[in-house]
Amino acid sequence: MLKHRGFPGRLPGTDFQFTIRRANPKGVTPLTRRERFRDRKAADKRADTAFLEALWEHFGDRPFERGNLDAGRLSWLFGREVVPAEDPFDPASYDAWLMIDVETARQSFPDIFGEEA
User: Fold this and answer.
1) How far apart are alpha carbons 34 and 74 in whole angstroms?
2) Residues 65-106 pLDDT 10s
3) Angle CA(60)–CA(98)–CA(74) in degrees, nearest 5?
4) What's the rounded mean pLDDT across residues 43-62?
5) The pTM is what?
6) Distance between CA 105 and CA 51 in Å, rounded?
7) d(Cα 80, Cα 61) in Å, to the nearest integer?
């Protein structure tokens, strides 16, 4: 499992983790698309924004390996702002390649890209 050096481990001051320390001995947690409803807590929305911002700063529009990025946090963005970068895609692999769908990310999180909604 690739460890992304320099990537923030969590949202400061919270328990929202962005990376994992070691591979899950029971098997890889697969990425799934989670629905984000309008009534989500402000802290959850902040965590999504901070995580996508960290992805953008770390990888930009280049494909990246899933590695030690947290599956739960990725799943809130998966299928929208973060999409598979390979075909076939294995959602239950630490070696899977992903990328940011820049257009969707700009629409969903305009503050990250310095644009007004």
Assistant:
1) 9
2) 999 999 999 999 999 999 999 999 999 999 999 999 999 999
3) 90
4) 94
5) 0.91
6) 12
7) 14
> Any idea what DSSP says for residue 25?
T
Concatenated DSSP letters of 58-110: HHTTS-EE-TTB-HHHHHTTBTTTEEE-SSS--TT-TT-EEEE-HHHHHHH-T
Q: For residue 38, is pLDDT > 80?
A: yes
Non-local (6+) Cβ contacts of 77 within 8 A are 48, 51, 52, 55
Nearest 5°: the CA angle 95, 106, 34 is: 50
Q: Give the mean pLDDT of 12-16.
A: 88
Predicted confidence (pLDDT) at residue 116 exceeds the cutoff of 80: no
Residue pair 74/31 in contact (Cβ under 8 Å)? The answer is: yes
Tally of CB atoms within 10 A around 105? 21
Q: Which residue has the tokens 């999409």?
A: 83
